[in-house]
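Usage example:
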Amino acid sequence: MSGIVDVSIKQPRKLTFAERLYLPEIVKGMGVTIRHLLRNIVSIRNLPTILYPEKRRDYSDRFRGKHILTTRDDGTLKCVACYMCAEACPAECITIVAGEHPKIAYEKYPVVFDIDMLRCVFCGFCVDACPKDALWMTRNYEMAFFNREEAIFGIDKLIAKPGLPVKDGMGYRPYYPGDGTRPPGDASSSPVIPGDGEREKWREKGIDLHHTEGPGPLNRSLDGSGREQAAAPQHPMAKS
Amino acid sequence: MSSVETVPLAPAAEKLRERFARSPLSERVAVVDLDLPTLEVAPADWPAVARFLRDDSECAYDLFLDLAGVDNAKRRGRPTRFEAVYHLHSLPRSEHVRVKVILPDTAEPRLPSVVDVWPAANWFEREAFDLYGFDFPGHPNLRRILVHDAFVGHPLRKDYSPGQRWFFAEEDLRMPSWATHTEERAGHFETQTLSIGPSHPATHGIVHLVARLDGERIKRAETQIGYMHRCFEKMAETHTWNQVIPFCDRLNYVSAMINGVGYVKTVEKMLGIEVPDRGRLVRTILSEFSRIMDHCVDIGANLVDIGALTNFWYLYQPREGIYGLLEACCGARLTVSYVRVGGLAIDVPEDFVPRCRALLESIPKFLNDVDRLVTRNRIVRNRLAGTGVITKEQAIAWGLTGPVLRSTGVAYDVRRSRPYDFYDRFDWDVPVATDGDNYARYLVRMEEMRQSLSIIRQALDVFPESGPVSSDDWHVVLPPKDAVYHDMESLIFHFKLIMEGIRVPAGERYDWIEGANGELGFYAISDGGAGPYRVKVRPPCFPMMAAYEKIIIGGTISDAIATLGTLNIIAGELER
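Running the assembly step on the lines above writes:
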């Protein structure tokens, strides 16, 4: 039966004689506290308090702590600087500057990836937003700074160090072992595209692999002379 | 304005229109049917309509819930720029109604005050004055409330640029005019003004109470709030619908989960999407745990204020366990951000049900300990019984809801009066008390925790072992990560959702749930854009804090501290 229960009826306003005497109630109360005291002495391991920092609370593997930028097998950032985490962030704490990666298969990478830890609200929206499995969170919650500049974490502080353990372990992430998610393919282990990694060598020869096909304003040389480039070099991807 | 005769209305709105057609106000009110029956009136007619709405036996809208200003400057389809939107509830008929007072386009928007009809309107009108610059002739104390006195402009107007900064110095602090001079009467000792707070350990938050004392008794009091105003509503207007969820956690931060649930329910109703049963059950279970946590903190802190420290430790242990459960579910203890529009961020962990059951086992032990220490203790009795008394009539007039209203004998609980999720399928009781004093509020909260445990137990019995927790509408919910990584179409949905946000159809909605402190309402307006056009929270603490300065009159300062504790004022929600 669902209904209404009047709690004042259960607790009559008038105190009994024993209750008015103070002492019986005080003894009853002391019984409760002494029971707690004895229990804490007998099973000291189950104390509700923790001796921090010697002991840490055991957090779940969903804990939303400091972010970490995951890397490919070859140690480069998985991030492709798509700005989706920055867009999803309700606190607007992520700053990304995109650059072109020398390796063609990686296309873009973040030249700058800053998270302002003082603005961050640790909601995990960036992790949810990342389509490339590039941003996880760790269980590290101990971040203290002496000034505001220090609180802006760049790639050097966020990148996962290959071979080194992550402080306090991984936390909130896009998928967990056993939930059936297949992580995205790792571009570093994908077949090598002919000419990949060769961009710098082409540049040394004076050829920019950007904007090399077809006519258009972007293909004009950048020296301001307005001259068309002499010969469009063949794109390494193109079949001759 | 004349009523529109041809449009067919829902039964509730039709009934209201018939009632008005038979009244002398028939020509002055337009009844339209939105999510709630909605009246549109002109400012000049508003006091008469208000009185009719309250006094007429077929209307009987006795509980004032909310007043939201709306600036239509960037929205099409509304006749004038400013509207004052009232939400009222009828306790005898258990119905909500919305009244829109359409303000004519003048330099200074003005509408009559209805403080004499519903005293609860007092602070709400101050808020509308503060944030929108509405003038309320007839208001007893119309001055800023949420932003400080050195602030220039009205921040929620659409033409107010949020980047501006106004600095508040100590000399800008305005004390109430009566507090600045002493009163002396012949044959009487002079009275004394005492300023408690803003940061005082007993205010549990930042609240400034100015009290005029005659000996030990409080003769007059005024509370000043706004120290924790974080412009939640302005921020909501500049973010997408989902991005507002982390901000909701900071409203009532003692039971953060409930705020998020209330907010996303409103948005889900605007979108017309359904959340799978499993997701709704998780929300119900965690909301009830949050309610227990809220009551634990309230009772524990309140007892500390009156000198009983031990209970605080006993009540914080269940809270610790619940925080552990929340952290295992979503990765954060307090700022959970667990809900999403359309479901949950992530499925619950595998050991969710056993963990909940373990908590159900352990929590009653601590409640029983506190019961043994406190309930029949004469000292506690003397401190709580008979202090901070609120009568039933006062509670309704002041717009109080939740445990405070129920402690005066009114069995209004949203989970019962308009059951959402599965509350109508569970077997539970609404605890009420009759005395309306601090002790009654303590008893109601203790019983509510036990009822919440019973609700959780029943929810766990029907909890499906597996199944989705979120809707599969990928226009609203992010597709599963496996699909995003390997399927182009899912990636496009993912991309559009992140970059553009959810598209909520243009319209408005007021949706309300039972927060830990009372009716928590969200009034959301969408113009079809990427984010909310306007979000107004109906914070249950706000009318309570407004009533506080009246409740404590005649009591001592120590009673006032005990009363502040049992009202459970949460500054994050109070000032948004």
